Amino acid sequence: MTHITAEDSPHGRHMGVTDVVMMIIQRIIGSGIFAVSSMIYRDVGGSPALFFLVWLISGYSSYAGIMCFSELGSVIPRSGGLKVFLQIIYNKPFMLINVVFGIFIVIFGSIIANVMIFGEYLLYALGYQDESIINKYFKLIGFIFLILVSILLLLSTKFIIKLQTFTGILKIILLLSVSIMGLSILILPNSITNIPNNLHYNDFFKIKTKVTISSFTSAILKGIFSFNGWHTIHNVLGEIKDPIKTMKLAAPLSIFLINLCYFLINLTYLIVIPSNELLEINEMIGLVLFEKFFGNSIGKIILSSLIAFSVGGNIITVLYHISRMNQEIFREGFLPFSKFFASNLPFGSPLPSLLIPVFITSLFLIIPTKSNIFNYTINLESYPTQIFFGLACFGILILRFRSPEIKPNIKASLIDIGFMILFSLFMFLGPIIKPDNTEFNGLPSYAFVSILILLLCMSYWLFMFKIFPKLFKYKLKRQEITLNDGMVINNWIHLPLSSDDRSYEPLV
């Protein structure tokens, strides 16, 4: 294998360090930090020491992951991220990983949960308290925002980048402001704040309720959920100015800023909210925090505004990434209507590939569905993704062995690589060895359904590249064609077995 040169995106290189840092922050920080901390605290038996240990491990997982992908990106500096990494590392059997991963991503490329959360909390932020009104209109509000963001994405990529950069900076400022409120309790006398400090050194290592290996593991999984999305920046690597130099700075800086915000906010939770309350909180812990500072009604409005703002920025970034990833998949040419879905017409942006996640998300918003089906689809997506993460990180070792002459400009440590491989293996085997379907009563195990979906994707590859050519006596040849908008895609030609046309790339 020779070193792969950078490939410019059809959309141009227009993102600098600040844009990349804010894009990573926007993608990772959603509503998780305002929801899971109380559940983590309960899982670790009310021990502040174990609580911060969980967040340390979770934070390290995001750092290890982005460093592994940054090494792959420095060797394979192209848009497409995980898709491109896997197809270059696992190039045999020919096109297998391309087809399996590509179909999976296109099917599950939606943002249902985030759109619903945005609609719900925007209504809370506007002062609506009646649950019947919330339940009636939150999907409609989410749908309107989805369409608005899609239109902006189509009209101006540069405007969207600047918008998400601006809102990302504002998000960091808002989160740090929340932290300052908590730290002020440590600094200012109680007579001024009227809120006692509930974090004391003599209780820091104390375990108040039972902790098991299972509960501690569950806490880590919840923490890692709050860092989800660190990998997606590599989907648009071809749109980053000087990608290796930029990622070398932007990757660790963005993860550091996120970890700093999470640490300070979690510290604020422990300072402001008494331990016995933390152990009993079932709703969003952020709501309790803001109610203590501002009162019940105002606190709920402020928190809801912050969550709606945070999730809204997340939706902008996710849609941007999904549209680019889908476009890269359709450029492979193995899916029906690839020429249409890979094109940038008529606005110079990936409108057709954006239509797919918008359609799938809208479908879930329109069709009446059980409430747990949304979390079920999230698990169907995240379970195979962990498998692909493990394969990609193991692929670093394969590339190092296969091409020792290549010296990556960004290099992950063996500890980073080992952690990601072992964690992905744990995430894969856990639901199979000890399945727990209590959350999804009446639905089959998401792990086995995910594996079945991957097997169906493999069947598509088997029929297209093996069975049909043999059955109907033709051979597949790959040809690169240029669309009217300048986009280069693959086109698969059926040639009779007797043909020896050298103008097409042979299937090998």
From TrEMBL:
Gene3D superfamilies reported for this sequence: Amino acid/polyamine transporter I
Segments passing through the bilayer: 20-40, 52-73, 94-117, 137-156, 168-192, 212-230, 251-273, 293-320, 341-367, 383-401, 413-433, 445-468
Membrane-topology annotation of the record: Multi-pass membrane protein
Pfam families named in the record: AA_permease_2
Keyword hit for Transmembrane helix: yes
Domain of life assignment: Eukaryota
A molecular function GO annotation: L-amino acid transmembrane transporter activity
Principal location: membrane
Keywords: Membrane, Transmembrane, Transmembrane helix
Subcellular location: Membrane
GO cellular component: membrane
Record flagged with keyword Membrane: yes
Name used for this protein in its record: Amino acid transporter
Species this chain originates from: Pichia californica
